[in-house]
Amino acid sequence: MLRIDRRLLLHLDWLLFGLTTVLLALGLMTVSSLVPRLGLRQLLWLGVGGGAALVVLSVDYHTLARWAYAAYGVGLLTLLAVLALGRAAQGARRWLSLGPVTLQPSELFKLVLIAVLAQYLAGRQGERAGWDRVIVPLVLAAPALLLIVKQPDLGTGLVLVPVVLALVFVGGARWQHLGLLAGLALLCAPAVWFLLHGYQRERLLVYVDPSRDPLGSAWNVIQAKITIGSGQVWGKGLFGGTQSRLAFLPERHTDFVFAAFAESWGFAGAMGLLLTYGLLTLRGFEVAAGARDSLGSFLAVGCTVLLASQALVNLGMVTGLLPVVGIPLPLVSYGGSALLTALGAVALIANVRMRRFA
User: Fold this and answer.
1) Calpha distance 348→342 (Å, rounded)
2) For residue 139, with 0-12 CB atoms within 10 Å meaning exposed, 13-18 middle and 19 or more buried, which class applies?
3) For the residues 244-259, what does the mean pLDDT come to?
4) Which of 189, 198, 218, 279 has a beta carbon 3.0–4.6 Å from 210's, enabling a disulfide?
């Protein structure tokens, strides 16, 4: 039976869990108002995710990190299995079916990659900073990124890039190394165009010129903007949204849930949601700064950047500030694997804070 030392409970981060609970409640209400049957399923996933979060909290993060390399190996094999045996949907092969349950391994692998990079970089603290602080993390991340993009799941791959770079930065990489790496990335950027699938290129083109295909590739973003604007200042109410409830807005309960939320709660509610994400991000960095050791700090930084970057990419995508890449809004969008990952990230941050004096 898993048990948590009562002394550790004194340091439980109630602010972190309060902010998380607000996001979960808003997401559950929004999804339930749009598709009631999916709201019930999301509630079930919330129960599973809550149980998983308790497991993460009950085990010292040092113990969890010691299993990082083994989990990394299993994770890569799972990503390979997705390409060979995964379930295909909407032109992508990202899911594994385990009886009645369907999981997206690339989502869960995010936490594994954070753990393995944090474990490696923490083990190099105190040594002279060299190219190994940059090259080894990139080598560890590259196979996973390639397998994820191959599915194709460009959105998850893009979200992992700032996570890896943030960990490399706080892990002690020199500015010269990072500058050279950035220069090489810029030189190679044009070649990425030729590696993209046709629909991915089209998304970039309509991002530059939405009028290029208003009834096709640009439809989602155009409808999202209309939906957000229709909410005006105070919104139409939880069950009063017309754009979202009448299905003008595609993916209203997953990738574009923010637009549906803004229609229901208006500009005021949307700003409140953004404020909640901002406070959650600041709290995560505060935990990282106060961690008892470098491993805890790296874990908290990785998880915080993961949640923040995913939220930023999703919000940018929905509002037309970024191209559409298919990324859920953490803790709010419908989706079991995404919810498990987000709750796991929050639990890891809380784990680090609980044990800062242990």
Assistant:
1) 10
2) exposed
3) 90
4) 218
pLDDT at 91: 66
The Cα–Cα gap between 230 and 49 comes to: 33
Residue with the bigger pLDDT between 57 and 189: it is: 57
Q: How many helices (H) and strands (E) does the chain have?
A: 15, 3
The answer to whether residues 177 and 113 touch, using CB atoms and an 8 Å cutoff, is: no
Q: Quick one: which H or E segment has residue 87? A: strand 87-89
CB neighbour burial string for 5-41, b if at least 16 within 10 angstroms, e if fewer = eeebeeeebeebeebbebbbebbbbbbbbbeeeebee
Q: How many CB atoms lie within 10 A of CB 319?
A: 16
What one-character DSSP code corresponds to residue 255? T
List the one residue out of 104, 109, 107 whose CA is nearest residue 75.
Answer: 109
Tokens linked to 15: 């602010």
Where do we find the tokens 């930065």?
Answer: 169
- List the chain domain ranges: 6-354
Residues 95 and 104 sit within 8 Å (Cβ to Cβ): yes
Bridge partners of residue 89, in order along the sequence: 92
